Amino acid sequence: PGSAVLVIIGSFPATHLPHIHGSVTSLRLFAPALERQAHAVYIFAPTPRHAVDGPHVLRIPSLPFAFQPEMRVAAIYSAQAHRLVRRANLDIVHSHDYKTNLLAYLLGKFEAVVPLSTVHGWTGHSPRERYLYYPLDQRILARFPWVVAVSGEFKSVLVKRAARADRAPVL
């Protein structure tokens, strides 16, 4: 018979091409591998569109990043993003950092999607990041049904913030 799609995944990186960093590289590697296994992967990336965007890259409203104006970050919530998520009929919303974890959490609350985050780390060193953004992010992540940590150290932080250890595997 035909090739049915098993799971429809929407991935929400904080940035995307032309910027290169860990989650962009991971998406460029994992998306094709997942698609070969009969999953569908959509990347919901911050505007503006880029010349190399494929058909599964959907751009959502974004704002200039305060400290690096050439970079853009996705708006925490937008009606356009909400419509795109509904249209894609996602099963899983996969976020990659504190700027998109809140969006994934909210979509999980208001849509029939499962929020999932891969925790790459909390690398900022400003007081605002250390004492506001990251603690709030860790509390939000503790409410996710599944969180993937890239190290045992990150898993320990999440478990301290009330994430279930059995639902926070380490890659």
Defining key terms:
171 residues; alpha/beta; six-stranded parallel beta sheet; two-stranded antiparallel ribbon; 5 helices; globular
Rg result: 16 Å
Outline the low-pLDDT stretches: none
Q: What string gives the helices and strands in order?
A: EHEEEEHEHEHEH
Q: What is the number of beta strands? A: 8
Structural class: alpha/beta
Spatial gap, N to C terminus: 34 Å
> Looking across the biggest beta sheet, what order are the strands in?
3-2-1-6-7-8
Main β-sheet, in a few words? 6 strands, parallel
Mean pLDDT: 83
Shape descriptor: globular
Helix content: 25-40%
Q: How many distinct helices?
A: 5
β-sheet strand percentage: 15-25%
SSE diagram, text form:
Blueprint: E1 8-12, H1 22-36, E2 40-46, E3 57-60, E4 62-65, E5 68-74, H2 79-88, E6 92-95, H3 98-110, E7 114-119, H4 127-141, E8 146-149, H5 152-160
Helix pairs in contact: 3-4
In short:
The protein has helices spanning 22-36, 79-88, 98-110, 127-141, 152-160, and strands spanning 8-12, 40-46, 57-60, 62-65, 68-74, 92-95, 114-119, 146-149. It is an alpha/beta fold and 171 residues long.
Description:
It is a single chain. Helix content is 36%, strand content 24%. The chain has 171 residues and is α/β, with parallel strands linked by helices. The strands form two sheets. A six-stranded parallel β-sheet has the order 3-2-1-6-7-8, sandwiched between helices. Strands 4-5 form a two-stranded antiparallel sheet. Helix 1 links the parallel strand 1 (8-12) and strand 2. Helix 3 (98-110) runs parallel beside helix 4 (127-141). The termini are far apart.
